[in-house]
Amino acid sequence: MTADEPRRLVIVPPPYPKTTPGFCETGNPMCGEPARLYAAGWRCPAHRPSTPKYDAA
């Protein structure tokens, strides 16, 4: 890089904890119980996402 060139910004993503597939990734420290994959990530039965309830009215 010469003095005439503009400096380039380097974007560094924050560190993300690596999860083990098949184990709950909820909490800090992570739960770690056997889990299934939801859209929100790996969740055990105690931390599974809630199901929205709609009114029939």
Shape assignment: elongated
Compute the separation of the termini in Å. Answer: 66 Å
- Provide the β-strand percentage band: 5-15%
Largest sheet: 2 strands, antiparallel
Q: State the order of secondary-structure elements, H for helix, E for strand.
A: EE
* Number of helices, where a helix is a run of at least 4 consecutive DSSP H or I residues: 0
Structural class of the helix and strand makeup?
little secondary structure
Q: Main sheet: which strands, in order across?
A: 1-2
Quaternary structure annotation: single chain
Residues in helix, %: under 10%
> pLDDT average, as an integer?
82
Residue windows where pLDDT falls under 50 for at least 5 positions: none
Rg is 21 Å
Tally the beta strands: 2
Give a brief description.
With 57 residues, the chain is low in regular secondary structure. The chain is built from no helices and two strands.
Q: Main traits of this protein?
A:
single chain; 57 residues; little secondary structure; two-stranded antiparallel ribbon; 11% strand
Structural description of this entry:
0% of the residues lie in helices and 11% in strands. The chain is largely without helices or strands and 57 residues long. It has a two-stranded antiparallel sheet with strand order 1-2. A hairpin with a 2-residue loop joins strand 1 (36-38) and strand 2. The radius of gyration is 21 Å and the shape is elongated.
Topology:
Elements: E1 36-38, E2 41-43
Antiparallel strand pairs: 1-2
